[in-house]
Each structure stands twice: as structure tokens, then as C-alpha cells.
Design a protein that fits this description.
The protein is an alpha+beta fold and 230 residues long. It has 8 helices and 5 strands, in the order αααββαβββαααα. A hairpin with a 3-residue loop joins strand 3 and strand 4. Helix 5 runs antiparallel to helix 8 and helix 6 packs parallel to helix 8.
Length: 230
């Protein structure tokens, strides 16, 4: 049976699940298992409250993604049986708290029309690894930026400037949350850093997300490697 064509909303949801997959820096092996991806509740808020879609639109789009096996939901947990009941249910069910990407969903998300891409911007993070992101921001090609990950003010200034790509007027108002994001990264607190990052850059282009996360990921990584090297 041929797979139904995904509508605009379903494609947008799938794109967000793909973006989260990349932000977590997961490998191909994750496409064969359940992993904690973006919150269904948060996605529904984004597209229904902020994006103007109805709850029915969202539910039908999500159903199309599930029916097509492009995404899965989780976590899967055992049924809780009533100890005083004679009926016993055996097996697992999804609590439908988050979405995760499947191999089929990953392949589907790559079906964008082929186009010639400009050279990607690069970010050099001193005291860490060189990050060359396969992305580009608008006309800012051949962009090279050097960031000292140990300098909080420099990091905050750079991340705030990336917010300006999304909303020039809102970059200043987001500076406080950027500072909170950097604090979480310096503490190696991924669970706290991730939702802040998504609030700040969730509506940004893949290019902006990639460049911003490169810096945050480097700071987090340094906390688990005993500090930056020379």
C-alpha cells in the first residue's frame, strides 16, 4: 500500500523531530530504537497556539506520521494492572510524551529538491575542537568566526547575535536566557540546557541552530573531559 503524501504541517513536525535528532548528535543506530525526542505537548503548543493550526490539524498530521512509520512515540512502559482485578494485561503501551525519528522518517526528511548550496560558515572554538557546520546563513557565505568558549561574555555576545538572525528586535530581550543557557552548559547540565536552547532557537533556521549548538555542545563536552585542552 503506497504511503500517503504528507501535508505541510506533517512535514513541519517531521522537520522539528529531525532537528532534535541532529541537536542530540545521534547516530544511525538511534533510528532503530526508541530515544527521548521532542515533547508532543511542546510541539502542539508551537503549531497550534503559536502557529495557528487547530488541534485537529495537529492530531491528523501526527497520525499521518505514525501511520507512515516516519516517527514513533514513547516512552513505552508496562501496563499497570489492578492487583484486585482478575484481568491482567501483559505488554507495553506508549505514554505518548515524545516523538522519535525512524529510519524511514529520516529518509523522508531528506527528499527536499536538490539545490546548489553555498560554502558553509565555520566556527573555530579556541580551547576545543574545530567545528565545520554544513550550513549557511542567508548570504553570509564564507563566514568564519572564532569563539573563545572560556569567555562567557564573548559566547553570550555571539549567541545573542545569532538570535538577531531570527528576530533582530528580540535579540536583546533574549540575552538573559542566553546567559542561562551558557550557565547550564558550563555545568554540563544537558537536561536544563536543551529546553532553553529550544525556546531560543526552536524557530530558527537549521543554519542558526547548527552554529549555536556547536558552541553549546563544545562547552558541555569540556565539562565531561576535564576542561579544554591547549
Amino acid at each position: 500500500m503506497p504511503t500517503a503524501k504528507l501535508d505541510t504541517l506533517a512535514k513541519a513536525i517531521l522537520a522539528d523531530v529531525l532537528a532534535d535528532f541532529r541537536l542530540q548528535n545521534l547516530g544511525s543506530e538511534a533510528l532503530d530504537v526508541e530515544y527521548p525526542g521532542p515533547s508532543i505537548k511542546a510541539l502542539k503548543t508551537k503549531f497550534c497556539v503559536d502557529g495557528g493550526y487547530s488541534n485537529v490539524d495537529f492530531d491528523l498530521a501526527l497520525k499521518a506520521l505514525e501511520d507512515g512509520e516516519f516517527v514513533g512515540t514513547g516512552p513505552y512502559v508496562p501496563h499497570e494492572n489492578d492487583p484486585y482485578s482478575g484481568l491482567v494485561m501483559i505488554g507495553l503501551y506508549s505514554k505518548r510524551e515524545f516523538l522519535y525519528l525512524t529510519e524511514k522518517g529520516y529518509r523522508e526528511s531528506q527528499k527536499a529538491p536538490a539545490e546548489k548550496k553555498p560554502p558553509a560558515p565555520t566556527v573555530h572554538i579556541s580551547g576545543g575542537n574545530f567545528h565545520n557546520s554544513p550550513l549557511a546563513i542567508g548570504e553570509n557565505i564564507n563566514q568564519t568566526t572564532t569563539i573563545n568558549a572560556q569567555n562567557d561574555a564573548e559566547v553570550i555576545r555571539y549567541l545573542t547575535s545569532l538570535l538577531g538572525e531570527l528576530d533582530p528586535a528580540g535579540s536583546e530581550s533574549g540575552k538573559e536566557e542566553v546567559a542561562a543557557l551558557v550557565d547550564a552548559a558550563k555545568a554540563g547540565d544537558v537536561p536544563r540546557a536543551k529546553p532553553i536552547f529550544q525556546r531560543l532557537y526552536g524557530a530558527a533556521t537549521e543554519a542558526v541552530k547548527g552554529l549555536a549548538w556547536a558552541v553549546i555542545a563544545e562547552i558541555i563536552k569540556s565539562q565531561f573531559s576535564g576542561g579544554s585542552g591547549p
